[in-house]
Amino acid sequence: MVYLEIVSRLESIVEDLKSLPPDKLEMAADFIQRLKPISLEERETILAGIFGSLSHEDADAMQKAIEEGCERIDERGW
């Protein structure tokens, strides 16, 4: 019984996807990819690919911006 419910839901989703325009279908595919769990190996590969891609100057500028703009509490902002 549960299997039939899952298959029925999956079929419904597939039919919904078929009716989407190409740009919305691309958005749906990106979202689905983000939902899928990735392995530790995949994470390490992703991190290795971007490690060191930020220059020291850019890293310093980012750290300064965080310190100046993100570590303050605006009591009137709540």
Structure description:
This protein is mainly alpha-helical and 78 residues long. It has four helices and no strands. It is elongated and about 50 Å long.
Key traits:
78 residues; mainly alpha
List the helices and strands and how they pair.
Layout lengths: L1 H17 L3 H14 L4 H11 L5 H14 L9
Quick description:
72% of the residues lie in helices and 0% in strands.
List the secondary-structure elements in sequence, H or E. HHHH
Mean pLDDT over the full residue set = 85
Structural class: mainly alpha
Number of helices, counting only DSSP H or I runs of 4 residues or more: 4
List the uncertain runs.
none
Task: Report the radius of gyration as a whole number of Å.
Answer: 21 Å
Work out the count of structural domains: 2
Helix content: over 70%
Overall spatial form: elongated
Q: How many beta strands in the DSSP annotation? A: 0
Distance between the termini: 49 Å
Strand content: under 5%
Oligomer: single chain
The major sheet is characterized as: none
